[in-house]
Amino acid sequence: MSAGPLDPTPLVVGVDGGGSRTRVILADAAGNTLARVEGAGTALTPGHEGVAADIIKSLIADALATVDRTETRPAVCVVGVAGAGQERAAQALWSALASRRVADDVSVQADATIAMDDAFGDSAGVLLISGTGSVAYSRAPDGRLERCGGWGPNIGDEGSGAWLGRRALSVITAAHDGREPDTSLTGAVLTALELESLDDLIPWAAEATPGHYATLAPVVAKVASTGDLRANALISFCVEELSLHIRTLARRCFMDERAAIPVAFAGGLLSKGSLVRKRLEQRLKSAVPGATVRAEDVDAARGAVRRARRLLGVEV
Known about the structure:
CATH topology of the domain at 11-116 and 300-311: Nucleotidyltransferase, domain 5
Organism: Gemmatimonas groenlandica
Structural class: alpha/beta
Radius of gyration: 21 Å
Domain ATPase BadF/BadG/BcrA/BcrD type: 13-305
CATH superfamily of the domain at 11-116 and 300-311: ATPase, nucleotide binding domain
Mean pLDDT: 91
Number of strands: 10
Strand content: 15-25%
Strand order of the largest sheet: 3-2-1-4-5
Pfam families: BcrAD_BadFG (PF01869)
Number of helices: 11
Protein name: ATPase BadF/BadG/BcrA/BcrD type domain-containing protein
């Protein structure tokens, strides 16, 4: 028997919004997952918070339709999105979501905050996120929260997918000029972007978003795995940048990178089995000797559900 609009069971929603995709989990008050849906990215850019809110509202509606609860408004919705670490952006998105009545109670958080909820709960640890963008967060043993990176695609996000994609284009244009050695990246990138010549990169780049650049990260990894020197140099540079994020927070929150430090990874570039993750885990053995990398996947949307249940008054 399907649930109707008067069903008393409260629902909660967790939203994880990145630059490339948005994931939504619909759950009951006990934390049982009822539906999962995915859609377009909702990373915040100034003046476009309403677009992100529309995407989130549509995905929540899809999740409710999956369990035949289209007439039910969730009790709590926690939204964690890239860019919400800035108070103005977070407030603008909250206002847009509240006006769209996506839930009785709406909370907007930075994407790393909800990922931390899933990775460590209330315990200490360092979380590194590398997807379209990058950022690291840490909770110190005394409860302090610290951030490293996350300055956005124009001035930061080192070691992210977008960062890696941009640098791949710089490498192949330099190789074309003769400023750098030839690389297999040239043909691989042109094929991936369905372009005929390097000259076509100029109009492509003029319109490209960080998400577009991030689509080139798997291309770089694939070419690196064939032994290409320039692609491997890019991967090594990426790994070094990401390890610096962790080492910086290890020193800031744990006093010493040799201390016992729980570390978790999230984001597409650091998915289990990826080349960047494998090399980063190896690099941490010397850069942050005390790091113990959590093997389980971090699910930021699940962390948002955990926070939503807490706001609902459920002990988690």
